[in-house]
Amino acid sequence: MQPYIVYMGSPLNNNGDSAEISELTHLQMLSSIIPSEESERISVKHSYHHAYRGFCALLTKQEATLLSGYEEVVSVFPDPILELHTTRSWDFLGSYYSTNNYNYHASSNYDVIIGVIDTGIWPESPSFDDQHIGEVPSRWKGVCMEGFDFHKSNCNRKLIGARFYDIEDQDSNITKLPKNTTKPNVTPRDRVGHGTHTASIAAGAFVPNATYYGLASGIARGGSPSSRIATYKACSEGYCQGSAILKAIDDAIKDGVDIISISIGRSFVFQTDFKDDPIAIGAFHAAERGIGVVCSGGNEGPDPYTVTNSAPWIFTVAASTIDRKFQSNVALGNSVTLKGTGISFYTSGHAKTYPLAFGENVHFHPSLTSQARYCMPGSLDAKKVAGKIIVCMNDGWSISRLIKKLVVQDANAKGLILIDEQEKSSPFDSGNFPFAEFGKIAGAKILQYINSSKNLHATIFPANEIRRFKPAPVVADFSSRGPATLTENILKPDITAPGVGILSAMIPNTEKGSSLFGITSGTSMACPHVSGSMAFIKSIHPTWSFSMIKSAIMTTATISNNLRKPLTNTSNLDASPHEIGAGELNPITALNPGLIFETTMIDYYNFLCYYGYKEKKLRLIVSKKNNFNCPRNSTSTTKKELISHMNYPSISIEKHDQNYGVSRVKRVAMNVGSPNATYTSSIIGPPGLIVRVSPRKIEFVKEIKKISFEVSFDGKKASKGYNFGFIIWSDGFHKVKMVFAVNVE
């Protein structure tokens, strides 16, 4: 027996169903399948009735199967566990809040509300100060829920709403607390730091002199400091429950948010169908109501087919570096000094020289030599480790850097040096424990020193910040890659944003002099950069839909680094669209994109038809106000190929038969620039792939706002595999870039 989510599609009433009637209906359904002698089990954990119908309840597998056969039920699936996937970053993006661009902030036309679904929030952070923000918008319908350590007074004009949900804690010691003991989850307060960090990246207020123990000093601010924040605590220590996320999205839609930011996802290994994915379900119904959902793409790179949250109605974000590096230098006993990466600082004293030892040479037992090489738990001899700096390899085993650090620290080592086969893009924060990390070349010099001397010594110096580092941005090694496993006919991820070494608000720890800010990495950090940018664009263009803003961001994305060369990955190879999507986020340029490719709900409905969902089930999913029928051609054997025809801001063709002929797709361009404009197309593509655009020139006059065109791909002479390129529309001022990916077979 386990909790299951029962998804029943759109509400019967377009404004949402009554909570009482919905719960009664759900209880009646449960009573029809649960034996009368077990009537105490007839209860609903979460009821969904605002933007969609359904509930979460404790069921047996047989009961879940019975419910899935009900005509009014779309899907029944086990409640999944999902994972949690700033000063310099906004400067690097060409912040619109710099001195030259502050006029954008002053000219905002709309008060944007960002809903952040995460681990909660630390309301006392200066990032959530409301001193320079007006009254709460009257359209806000949310609440500020109180918890044992959170009061209504913790909400203000910046943090306008806070909710928390009943999260089943995975720690049995917590779930079995005495009755009078308060669970740590029964509060909107953040005990992890993840939610506080992401919320402040998206919409944190201006905070001067922000720093993390002297590192990354500057003015901290979010992407849209004038926007409001509503927090929805659906996650606990390191994990999130799908049923709680689904409830949070339902509440956020009812409360009146404009954008939902979700830095959460399942591992690509456990990806499921769209109708069995809580985030995809919630995001779909949010899109029906004009609300944008931005999600992290996952931290399971650099392998392909690892990107998650890949539904076309989700804005999927990859992670990249900024032009800042945290450098930790190591001086070896042979007078060689090496430049590594890492974040460590000394709260007292100075860097000292200590004996140096390789992990495999201080093993607990000869049989553990290979494990000790990687500093695995239980492999080191504490007596041999104590008082030394330990060198560990960091490849070949799925042991995190944090675990390795704790292993050597618990053995009373004086520092840790890690050697990677490939350099990591994300700096590891070891606090006040000396740490440095090196790639293969520098690592070879360390190993050479170890093998050439018996009297080994080293010094690890505290980290220092290197600004205007080049090249940047670079795709983060951990950032999940496309193609998307569920459908390759939609290019994912969509966009790349800063996600490495990001300084933002953090919950204070118990140590004296604790920092109010922290430095973290992940697509979790990249996601709110996009959410904040969308909020900023929405504040300037309040009539633009979510998909219009998404298109503006994608078609104006940057595809070159600060060396004016193509974006690269950590292997120093040119980054492909399966790594960066359309390119790096460029919020200022996105304000004036020229042309937009708006993806409508009809496109999404057609997508579900082409994907293979039965029309009978789709009528349950689609909003009742839309009388929708699947296109006739959706029943053809090649229906999934029709997904490529969606009016998406990028083009992806999963299978182009080299011997078949030409693949064609259509797009509709909307002019949001000068009323009289002529755009001419050009192609940047790989040799051998013939790309044609018809018509090559499109002309807009006052009466004409939208023009369609066709793109054809001929791969007879192209290399097999994915071929990437850009279609660029230009009127002499705007450059509208549409990325394409064509898999030639």
Automatic annotation (TrEMBL):
GO terms for biological process: proteolysis. InterPro entries: Peptidase_S8/S53_dom, Peptidase_S8/S53_dom_sf, Peptidase_S8_Ser-AS, Peptidase_S8_subtilisin-rel, Peptidases_S8_3, S8pro/Inhibitor_I9, S8pro/Inhibitor_I9_sf, SBT. The active site is at D118 (charge relay system), H194 (charge relay system), S524 (charge relay system). Residues 646-742 form the Subtilisin-like protease fibronectin type-III domain. Residues 111-582 form the Peptidase S8/S53 domain. It comes from the Eukaryota. CDD domains: PA_subtilisin_like, Peptidases_S8_3. GO terms for molecular function: serine-type endopeptidase activity. Gene3D superfamilies: 2.60.40.2310, 3.50.30.30, Peptidase S8 propeptide/proteinase inhibitor I9, Peptidase S8/S53 domain. Keywords: Hydrolase, Protease, Serine protease, Signal. Residues 4-85 form the Inhibitor I9 domain. Belongs to the peptidase S8 family. This is Tripeptidyl-peptidase II.
